[in-house]
## 1
Amino acid sequence: MKSAPLVAVIQFPGSNCEYETARAVRSSGMDSCIYRWNQWRELRDSQPDAYVLPGGFSFQDRIRAGAVAAKERIMDLVFSEAADGKPVLGICNGAQILVESGMVPGWEKGRIETALAANHISGRSGYLSGWIFLHTTTRAQQICPWLGMTGNGVIPLPIAHAEGRFVFSEENHYRAESSAALKYCDEKGIESSDYPINPNGSFLNLAGVMNEYGNVLAMMPHPERAFWMWQLPPWIPGEWGDRRDESLSSGSHAAAKGPGSVFFMSLADYFRGER
């Protein structure tokens, strides 16, 4: 019997979402193991099938969020594995690390081609914590292992960041759309650059960016914080709000999977060859 895929969760000093991320992986039918930033040899020898860089404040966000972690030796290994096609997911601070390492959008190897700048929209700035809605681009559903089950609907997820605004240099604006994986929208799926639909002023309403092959995804919202239905607030409207209410009335609320689960379940399906 073939063993379950192994997903490595990389823990940096200041990471604070590694355990719930590892649990989300295991609850999706895969194996997970947490590796510290200085365990690159152990990581190399275990030969994981996929990698997740979880949220937090690696190295206290010194210099820029994700900048120090991106220079750690363990990221050289992740970079190499991504180049070989293995799936890599960066969540919030993990997304910032992927951006600082040049892995997304990855048009030119190792070059930083986008930035996650400080939140700024309609005079609002600083740290934001709350719930947003997003949807997946058609191309991302087709090529990204993390997004195959997201469908055409609206997905509610929590955000918690101060530097989550995707920006591109003017000469790369025309290329940004090809890297778009997740976009902020309202509960009906309509995009807007206005707050609070776009919570941070991100270019093209981007909530997530992928590399050209789709195997590397950097996203600012936290799917691991919405893996279970009981994590959804009661005011969430639409399909997921209805599912939440149904799980409450049926008594399955504690075990029912929430919207964040589709990202991890997508990867499990990818490894089963169901995409």
## 2
Amino acid sequence: MRRRHLEMTLEKLSGFKTPDPLKEQYATPATVAAELLHFAFMREDLLDTVYDLGCGGGILAIGAKLLGAEKVIGFDDDRDALEIARANAKKLDVDVEFVCSGINEICGKAHTVVMNPPFGAQVKGSDRPFLRKALELSEVVYSIHNAGSLEFIKKFISPAVITDYRIIDFPIKRTFRFHKKEIQVIKVEIYRIEKR
């Protein structure tokens, strides 16, 4: 599936109904999801089991399944978000399992983890448990972070390494009262992290 076709398909999915600002529940835009997933697909990292940590409405999990992942499980601690994720999977007729779990309670093994963790804008360091858990669960991780995080992420994940990354625009729609603009575009980095 071409990236543009994937993006158009993912645009049909619903996001959060009542997002929580403390959890930084921003819907991952279809453009960003398609970029991450195409990046992983081209590296042949979506063939086996894929986990989506903090899956929200399930856009990354569903996209991974559309691109041929054998088994996909999305994890989130928000039951309402998981209901939306299940409805989204049904809408596109894909078989994805969604599990209600806090980040520290997730167990199992995956070949690849895909995720858009909190950036730590509201609660400093909130991305760290996601990175720790992702590296515990899999050999390869694709993760979205604020641009300029490269050196911190390199140190934090060591001895794992960043093998490649992309810098892209992330349009954030006005979601919370404290947002001033209808759309704020920020730069983010998508990292491919590998255990060594």
## 3
Amino acid sequence: MRTGPVIGVLLMAHGSPDSLDEIEPFLQHVRGGRPTPQTLVEEIRERYRLIGGCSPLLALTQAQARALEERLHAEGLQVHVYVGMRHWHPFLKETLTGMVADGLRRVIAISLAPQYSQLSVGAYQRALQAAQTELGVRLDVTSVESWHDHPLLLQAFAEMVQDAFARLPADGRTQVSVIFTAHSLPARVLTEGDPDPHEVERTAAGVARLLG
């Protein structure tokens, strides 16, 4: 057992396959065990093939975890940052097992989806609770519900837009429009009052305000 902090930070994300061969079992997990039509499997496989055969999600999330841990250590907080995925390795259950082995008792859980939806952040929270139940452990978990309007998030998005504008010919920049997009949600979720659409709008408005 590692001697060290008893508080950990858990970054949670959707998960993605590590290779083309893992796409079919990954999709089956996303679909709750239901088989995926082969035409859809091939369509998704082709999309992954176009970006090199795998998604950069895990590598990027692990890099974020390292950067966050270094920042926290620099501020005198001796906490360890973990990564857990809902639909692929490292599954939340796998990560939770390691956290327990490390002697952690408290966890700050952060979904990498900034806007709250019962189908994203809510689903990650339920999956984390299910993993605890399955393992027979109970940690003191504090969940970050939403960070859609955090100043640093808005600043990061604004800087990315500014960087994109800087790559355009100077005489054509005034003719360019910025379109904000987000993941779609089923209509039933919207009628149930899911806050995601409103939080997406607030994120977009905050970025637009910074861009002037």
## 4
Amino acid sequence: MSFRVVTALNSPPLVAAAGLATLVGIPFVDAAATSGASLALLKGANVVSFAANCAAVSVPGRIDERQDQEMRRGALNPTKPAATGQIRGDSTPGEATPLADQEHHTSSYNENYSPARGRTLVSPSGWAFAIWGPIYAGEAIFVAAQLLPGSSGLTEIIPQVTAPFIATNIFQSLWCASFRPSYGTEGWEKYISPAMLAGTAYSLSLIHSVGTGIAGATAWYFFPFALHFGWTTAATLVNLSGSVSMGSSTPDSTVIAVGHSSAVVATAFGIGVTLSQSAPVYGLTVAWALAACGDGMKKRIAAVNADRNAGEEGVDLLRAAGVQKKLCWIGSGVCTLVALTTMFS
């Protein structure tokens, strides 16, 4: 199927409906999988869903991909904050973006998530995204290992994880479809992408719950899922904060409240899940994400202070970035301490 056909099918109502159907369908698929469904069928479904996820990731045009491309070609200067209007994606209400201005208009979406240039207070530094490597590599190993003869330990748990694993891959694919400039900055559509990430995190929480009861060598197959669960927990808050902050009608006070709340909520999840499920990998992953967000605010503050043309309009956000940096680093430290205590207790 060509990218053009995929793009034509990518409509916000359809993606939202698919996400809702996936969420509703999890218990039904799980009931079928655990009540004697063919193992060959379940393993095949895992392979197909993971392959679909990988294919969705490869479709160009996501906001994060475009930001990286513009940074590489010099269209975005990471050392200077954007003008407030650019960050918010301001345009005259009721007017379509002229073709001549589309590249500039698209940049406003991309900048919103930038640590140095953005408006959101939940923006991790680029190094944090290296975590996707071990996540996808580990899950690819899981998918391949289930097909190998002699994997009896893994085969026994396939019926328990197939439904949430399929849902994880569907939600991740739907996020790839919705995290795009075409979903706008003002309407309800901009909240579809964080909703799909929340669905991903929820599905992974179900897999993670199964993994906490597994011992021995088989437990290592759940390592990438713990990483993925922790990362998407934080990423949901990153995406939500970004969606809130990109609206031109959203006041700075709301952006600040959502940003600070996100740091507190992420810390609470990191502590709560780590302690309740004895899950140090999850806690360390949330700590990683919070540290990256704190580093992002460090870059934001340095960039704004270095910009001699910065006016008074962003003073509140700059002050809030300092508070956000402290909240993120404190949260990261606490999550790390709790995770290490759990690991060695």
